[in-house]
Amino acid sequence: MQHKNYTKNYLERNEFVRSKKGENANYFGPGEFGQPVKLDKVDLGPSDLKRLKAGFEKHGFNEFASDLISSHRRIGTINVDPGCANNIYDNLSPASIVIPVRDESWSILLRTLHSILSRTPLNLLQEIILVDDNSKMDNMKGRLDWYISHLQKVKILRLDEKRGRSLMVARQEGINKALSDIVIVIDSHTEVTEGWIEPLIQRIREKPNFLVAPIVDQIFAETLEYDYKKPKPRAMSFDFHLEQDWISYKQEYLNSISWSKPYRTTGIQGNALVFNKTFFNKLGGLDTGMKVWGGEQQELMFKYVMCGGDIEIVPCSHIGHVYRQKLIWSNELHNKTIMDEMCNQYRVAEVWMDEYKHLVFNRLGNYTRKTGDVSSRKRIREENKCKPFQYVLDRITQMIDLYIPVNLQASGAIVHSETKLCLSYWGEDPFVGKCHGHGYSQFWDLSKDFQIRCENQCLVYEDNKIKTKRCE
């Protein structure tokens, strides 16, 4: 099978297609071909304005605009390297697709499902497994069951209160049920593109011990526009709060990449994971001892590199993802009872980071958080004869300039000598507040080259004020 060449833009070849009102309107409806839905609030009545606001508050994106877009909307030309058209994909096995879902917007979930069904050859689709993570919304219950009963190859797995309410558990339950040994895990607010699945399956067939991902394009939360701009290649990495962080590749590494072939990367986002199920579970799968979400990308990043695998981006495969404008599930992420019981990042650090784990413990809670029982995770590392964490750092620093907070002049809180208030970091403008002694945004380094920094944000004096900006 040869990869299709989608270099001609349907929008350019059909002059009647527009995303405007009135005589220039198109025949297909709003948002077609990934175009933005731009709502003028003066056209909306009080009840619609209320729905518009409620959708943002509930989902972190414009649900009102999403509801106006067809579940079967088409996506225009994707900006892939011309060399992708020359790639040959043969002897491919079907993949199982796992989609965890919790109280998702109805229209955006349907668009996720139909984009997969309409853009994936049926012989390459084993099944789609929706894993309902104990949703509370009515439309995620009988209505969803009825709808998917009309779709081929789509099934639903429902988790109860005891098993559910954790993204890692929901994903792993779906993975365990998957019939294929090639598994793709994606979010429930995703749109795949033509030719997306063949490069992914091919790479896992060639490298079953690799964790790979497509290029993830942005679907804007405000307008649901699919961003076709060719993204500037950046690496998904981490800091020593174990938060994900986008960092530019070194130029010499960029020069070595062929943009029509898979290339090594430092880490991947959690919104698209592609792997061989047997090898994935040999490395312990996802850590189902984690709570809610967070930290799972770092664990996957570390163990795939340390335990005989690697991580790659497959640039000839593209999917779109809605990046929410606000944090959802924040009531659980900030639930003191849940999060004081155990810290995901502590679990990752304790199992995988060797002597570097103390950098995480210092910054996150100042040793006050808990790991829970990680004995089974440590056994997985021993059984797979995994390399030391230093191997991860050595590999990553071949590709990016990673800030590793060692050989510091000083570290800790910056405390005003008279007010006893602490300098905190949140956004561009630092501020002072009551000292809590638990690190987080009040933990600063004085680096060996005398930068005052909170991970990759440095204190600078510009425009007659102190602010933070990305460290150089």
TrEMBL record:
GO terms for cellular component: Golgi membrane. InterPro entries: Galactosyl_T_C (IPR027791), Glyco_trans_2-like (IPR001173), Nucleotide-diphossugar_trans (IPR029044), Ricin_B-like_lectins (IPR035992). Pathway: Protein modification; protein glycosylation. Its main location: Golgi. GO terms for molecular function: carbohydrate binding; polypeptide N-acetylgalactosaminyltransferase activity. It is found in: Golgi apparatus membrane. Its EC number is 2.4.1.-. Residues 96-244 form the Glycosyltransferase 2-like domain. It comes from the Eukaryota. The keyword Chaperone does not apply. Keywords: Disulfide bond, Glycosyltransferase, Golgi apparatus, Lectin, Manganese, Transferase. This is Polypeptide N-acetylgalactosaminyltransferase. Transmembrane segments: none annotated. Its cofactor is Mn(2+).
